[in-house]
Amino acid sequence: SQQGEEDPQALSIQEGENATMNCSYKTSINNLQWYRQNSGRGLVHLILIRSNEREKHSGRLRVTLDTSKKSSSLLITASRAADTASYFCATDLNTDKLIFGTGTRLQVFP
Amino acid sequence: SAVISQKPSRDICQRGTSLTIQCQVDSQVTMMFWYRQQPGQSLTLIATANQGSEATYESGFVIDKFPISRPNLTFSTLTVSNMSPEDSSIYLCSVELRETPVDTQYFGPGTRLTVL
User: Fold this and answer.
1) pLDDT tens per residue, range B16-58
2) Beta-carbon separation of A97 and B42 below 8 A
3) Backbone phi and psi for residue A82, each to the nearest 5 degrees, phi listed first
4) How many CB atoms lie within 10 A of CB B19?
5) Confidence class of residue B102 from pLDDT cuts 50, 70 and 90?
6) Which residues in chain B touch residue A42, judged by CB atoms under 8 angstroms apart?
């Protein structure tokens, strides 16, 4: 069953704007990861945040984690057309298995 | 990270036939996983394939329908048997790498299957 629900399901923005995606999950986690998928191809690992971390940065990406609310957010700053993709959160329940969220389809217009 | 390849990248198959998908990784890994992504949907784990043991299937997936081989630490296959149009999906393999501070999964490019 799906662990994570993401919102929005779809997001359209202009280049240069920031994009924020949210992920909520149901049970306690070991860590949470964000992946990007371009046009139904393979997934690219973006960033991992552990359950004892609250915020993490990687380039234009900023991830937050609130374990009390069982939620995470992914912020992409100064978006580019090349950021157009689907973004998925995935939770690790300390079982080596990843459970994926429903995904957010991001469209960045030039 | 790891370089993971899948063959075929896409295929169109007839109902009732079977397709074997190959996954090759450029380093030795213990844990490999197979996922299905139905059109417009998220990823669902089919099974975990560890070298030297039988694959472990998730609820809703059975070995007769999705037999898996894991002959060595760099290779695995997933067969989609007796296919129906409902099996049309992207099938992805992933590997777990031992990294610091936590283990991380990396994905292959996927195999897009269409069943007519």
Assistant:
1) 999 999 999 999 998 899 999 998 889 999 999 988 888 999 9
2) no
3) -70, -10
4) 18
5) confident
6) 4, 6, 92, 107-110
User: Rounded to whole angstroms, what are the CA distances from B96 to A59, B34, B65, B73, B105?
Assistant: 24, 12, 24, 12, 4
For B:43-72, CB contacts with A below 8 A are 43-45, 48
CB atoms within 10 A of CB B60: 10
- d(CA B95, CA A17) in angstroms, rounded, equals 34
Cα A39 from Cα A84, distance rounded (Å): 9
- Sign of the alpha-carbon dihedral angle for A91, A93, A99, A102: negative
Residue-wise over B81-114: b if at least 16 C-beta within 10 A, else e? bebeeebbbbbbbbbbbeeeeeebbbbbbbbbbe
Encode pLDDT of B2-20 as tens digits: 899 999 999 999 999 999 9
Give chain B as a 3 state SS string: CCCEEEECCEEEECCCCCEEEEEEECCCCCEEEEEEECCCCCEEEEEEEECCCCCEECCCCCCCCCCEEEEECCEEEEEECCCCHHHCEEEEEEEEECCCCCCEEEECCCEEEEEC
Omega before residue B85 within 30° of 0, cis:
no
Give the nearest partner residue to A45 out of B104, B108, B109, using CB atoms: B104
